[in-house]
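Lab notebook, page 48
Experiment: co-folding of the full assembly
Goal: obtain a model of how the components sit together before planning crosslinking
Operator: M.T.
Materials (sequences as entered):
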Amino acid sequence: MNMLGMFCVRACSGLLGLRTATPLRFLHSFSGITVAQIDEEVAKLLELKAQLGNDGKHQFVLKTAKGTRDYNPKQMAIREKVFNTIINCFKRHGAETIDTPVFELKETLTGKYGEDSKLIYDLKDQGGELLSLRYDLTVPFARYLAMNKITNIKRYHIAKVYRRDNPAMTRGRYREFYQCDFDIAGQYDAMIPDAECLKIVHEILSELNLGEFCIKVNDRRILDGMFAVCGVPDDKFRTICSTVDKLDKVSWEDVKKEMVNEKGLSEEVADQIGEYVSMQGGMDLAERLLQDQKMSQSKQACAGLQDIRLLFSYLHLFQVTDKVVFDLSLARGLDYYTGIIYEAVLTQAGVATVSTEAQNGPPEEESVSVGSVAGGGRYDGLVGMFDPKGRKVPCVGVSIGIERIFSIMEQKAEASAEKVRTTEVQVMVASAQKNLLEERLKLVTELWNAGIKAEVMYKKNPKLLSQLQHCEESGIPLVAILGEQELKDGVVKLRVVATREEVDVSRADLIGEIRKRTSEA
Amino acid sequence: MNMLGMFCVRACSGLLGLRTATPLRFLHSFSGITVAQIDEEVAKLLELKAQLGNDGKHQFVLKTAKGTRDYNPKQMAIREKVFNTIINCFKRHGAETIDTPVFELKETLTGKYGEDSKLIYDLKDQGGELLSLRYDLTVPFARYLAMNKITNIKRYHIAKVYRRDNPAMTRGRYREFYQCDFDIAGQYDAMIPDAECLKIVHEILSELNLGEFCIKVNDRRILDGMFAVCGVPDDKFRTICSTVDKLDKVSWEDVKKEMVNEKGLSEEVADQIGEYVSMQGGMDLAERLLQDQKMSQSKQACAGLQDIRLLFSYLHLFQVTDKVVFDLSLARGLDYYTGIIYEAVLTQAGVATVSTEAQNGPPEEESVSVGSVAGGGRYDGLVGMFDPKGRKVPCVGVSIGIERIFSIMEQKAEASAEKVRTTEVQVMVASAQKNLLEERLKLVTELWNAGIKAEVMYKKNPKLLSQLQHCEESGIPLVAILGEQELKDGVVKLRVVATREEVDVSRADLIGEIRKRTSEA
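Observation: model returned without errors.
Model output:
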């Protein structure tokens, strides 16, 4: 075999996952070889390694995938509590719920996230369709509406989404994380559903007791109008918008520098933007800007300002204006917003620490900003992107930043003296003497059948002490103790774990007594 | 450029996703080219196609990925009800809950599912780790225990799992589906946790009202002992076991044929197995087999039979022996079971129809068998596979076949006259006259703030009829109607949708009145 033949064999064996170093070197000498090419080669080698690595026993790396985590029972107990509060609020506002698959056809997600599309997880092609893990819940929602020709719905959806971002897990940023969305789709009178979304954010953040918060409101049309009247060229609206979006993380000086040095605005234009984006207020500010000589030149801006004014009138009726601020610096990164946008931020000291820490990271557009615990806006064009005839379904929605909220609640639980219970067991069926397993099983069956949450130790002859210890550890409030004497007398000794008080209760009264004593719990 | 050089260029351009037909043809002439190779080429072309296809607008295929589905609000309402019943039962038995990521390191799943590993979804290598979607919840649970060195836990986990199976969606078989697992890990006295798992299945199936059911029980050690005493060679235990597993779908004649013709057993050996696997009973059968001349020769079988006897004594105390049958034909496919195994089957007529239909499909080992709605068993070796020192954590668990249960509940709801409500709204705030939006918003705010589930139409001047229609359609029981007169009188007209009864209620009493009237709902 000559040298060229030899190469050909190697090139093809490479395709079969058996490539050695030689052809890799050859590829380098070829023009047009890309980083992606190399990645592919690496992938093959890793695959090969994975196959070889599993011959030995216990060679596993015991870990979860990068950027993901398990939830332990304590975390789950906190998560359940937070979800319940949020779901109750969504239900109070009449929302239904839907669910969509964790992966979508790749093309469903294509062209929806701009730059961030690179963060989408793709599934390996194993024959059949090209699939990607969902990146948010909004695009699958729009796909669902278009596919089922739904023009009216108020729904919530709580599920995990996936982003191949650089995880910053200490700051509560993961590659797998929950989103918690509430959206109202349908052709309605202006600002009524929009105002309800803000009412919902207000209710949830108040009920969760996360401390002081503030909901910033702006409108894409005001931003665009402002850019126009300040003299930003049309084709730079989006990029300047994303620079403005950094204002919650970096100073105006740095933002201005980026506008001038990187994005090519003149100092004068930048300064004019700077004047507007420093403005904050309420309905009064909207009124004032409607009279503003420059701003009022933009039809778009005026439409936005009038809607802000109307929004505040509804927010007033909803009794939430105390926390809402019209803030011209609020930009939000996602492309699909078309009208009102908003973001809720925690403003208490405890959260500010996190904010400082995060300044070291690279500024990122799409991620919820520092301190942000909810965000959303109006997106009237997204469903139309999926409809074969381009029929639009106006939508407005809000996403609760549940992972940040989990983190805060966990820290709170950690700091609190009160123990987080991970089960709801009301009573432990125990015995003080040996050979009473059968009697314990009989009694626990009675309790289960009556709907009482009860446990029994899976030992023939457990020590009373270890049974009591288990109650202390897992916060079980009552112990039903059986002994020869109790069996003879037809009673059970009911012990209150916290006070060590013990009282004999007849078998007939036991269920009622347990219910009575645990009804507040 | 000579021909060989030409080929080299093409071979490498192929690697870059630009391969034309020519090199493909060439590859065929090469020995060692596999189907996988071709799949890879196809994948590249599809990828290219996907990239090109997205230039045109509205070229989307509006669908979910093969084998997956959306859940609409009605399905979600049913799903929520079923989950609540199941979770309540798990909690009644003192279970905690955990959650694990939707994907695991590929190597975590490798070597756990035998033949079925081909059904695992892999993620595309985008640089970094090789990842796969979870195939069940048991292997991630074992990984979690080993990783966190947990030796004692009673946990449930309800989450979606992924299998690239041929979907049979009409029969409720999907590629994305829920599993609903309850497991007890820890070193305990024999058969106590095992019996509790069966008690749980009994409680759940009874509460869900799915009709008559039966829980079959067997033990891997009895199966292995039986094979041994019947003269099956050691290395054929697993394959014969999977043939026995088909007995719930095909006749004994067909099973015997497979044993003799395909798996090479003698007629005599097969007939002896046939005798045993036709046996069904309770504790009495275990007693009889312990006396059986042949069976009693196997230590393994005796250990299994003694445990079955003990199990039945506990099941008797748990009051569930009415539904449990010791059935020597129950085999269950999964490799990791080491002791007791069980499976719950619906036995009523309605389900039998589905069962006939399913006989046309290919027999599959790992899927829950026809009519099966729960299954599980003891797996004492799985956690040790993950532990660096091989330390074992004995486990027993059960998985509720929730997708089948959803299907049945949906059919029931479809057949029933009663409408499934998809929201829990108690009252609609409506107006009979124009220009009362502000008053409606004020009132609905009062209700929300008091925790009442309430809705208002997002129109300035909705027609009373359309407001009432919305109530009828979504099952809202009450309407709070505002008019000029009501506002003057300081009352609200409360209308009962079902009876059309109307009553004036003072504003101060409204919340109490709504609570009273909806407290049973």
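Interpretation: Chain A touches chain B through 125 residues (CB under 8 Å).
Next step: discuss with group before ordering constructs.
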